[in-house]
Amino acid sequence: MIWNEKMETMSREEMRALQSERLVATVKRVYENVPAYRAKMDAIGLKPEDVKGVEDLTKLPFTTKADLRDNYPFGLFAVPQDEIVRVHASSGTTGKPTVVGYTAKDIEMWSECVARCMTMAGITKKDIIQVAYGYGLFTGGLGAHYGAEHIGATTVPMGTGNTQKLVTLMKDFGATAIACTPSYLLHISEVLKESGEVNDLKLKAAICGAEPWTEEMRLQIEKNLNIHAHDIYGLSEIMGPGVACDCEYHEGLHVCEDYFIPEIISPTTFEPVADGETGELVFTTISKEGLPLIRYRTRDLTSISYGKCKCGRTTCRISRFKGRSDDMLIIRGVNVFPSQVEEALLSIDGVSPHYHIIVDRVNNLDTLEIMVEVDGKFFSDEIKGLEALSVKIGKAVQQMIGLNAKIKLVEPRTIERSMGKAVHVTDKRKLV
Ligand code: DLL
Question: Does residue 146's CB lie within 6 angstroms of at least one atom of ligand 1?
Answer without folding.
Answer: no
